[in-house]
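Materials and Methods. Structural model of ABC transporter permease. The 348-residue sequence of ABC transporter permease from Lampropedia cohaerens was retrieved and submitted for structure prediction as follows.
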Amino acid sequence: MTTHAATSPLAGTGRLHAFLRKLASVALTLLGLLALTFMIGRVMPLDPVLAIVGPDADQSTYDQVYQQLGLDQPLLMQFFYYLRDLMQGDLGVSILTGNAVAADIARVFPATLELASAAIVLGTLLGVPLGVYAATHQGKWQDQVVRVLSLIGYSMPVFWLGMMGLLVFYAWLDWVGGIGRVALSFDGLVERRTGLLLIDALLEGNWPAFRSALNHLVLPAAILGLNSMAYIARMTRSFMLAQLSQEYVLTARVKGLSETQVVWKHAFRNILVQLLTIVALAYGNLLEGAVLIETVFAWPGFGRYLTDGLLIGDMNAVMGSVLVIGLIFIGLNLLSDALYRVFDPRTR
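The predicted structure was written out as tokens:
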């Protein structure tokens, strides 16, 4: 009892130091992200002034806008003003829409979130069992089939799969919806509450709109999910092979446990923490990497907004989007660290 009382303050101090180190690491990472985002806006070969005033503006108009944007200030002062605006939630005004970039991102991001979430669910539900199955049949034809499928899913260009999917499953077979998030007859009829069209249609009880939204979501989510499935399956197979070669697995088999118990109750539990990180990273990649699939399917999401901003030189939209992407990865890394502590007591 005395030992426990003596060591408790030390343990509490250690946890405090660990928390402070983590907080400092996040702060430095965020500052580096902000500096990188700022520099991207300054080194890109696009003139934000011309994007606003147009190529036919006279020199006086150009100079006036140049000063209004603060581009005549030293680089360090420009960065200070950038940080000041961010602290106020100001990402600037989009040239493309004329709205605040923060409002635009809040409007388009739920569409990407819905698409990426459906894709990661499909990718995880398929990728994890396939990876485990391949590992338990190492070197056999089942293993080779899974590895080939993973290679195809990881290597095939997403934009090509999207166009072929539309051609086959929409134009020829008419199994799925076409471009967009919902049929034109339902566009704008569902009240926006969460921004997630499926959930909003459910909350409203609009079943025809829900079916239409689900019909349009299936194909792009499946194509994105195929890519994440391939990555998750490969990593799951690798993790499982490492565990199945451990002595505790041999001991469990000698004790007479079934193969299902050995694989799922013992080996799989020991890779769960690693899988959490893999799935989190795959989810982050889907959120920021859905640009091509959103372009092919005319999906009104975050990736398409970023692409349109790049095409017209809308630097506020580009910088705001890049910042959000970085924040997503920082948030997912923090989430995976927290889940580590939940599922693996050794890390507490």
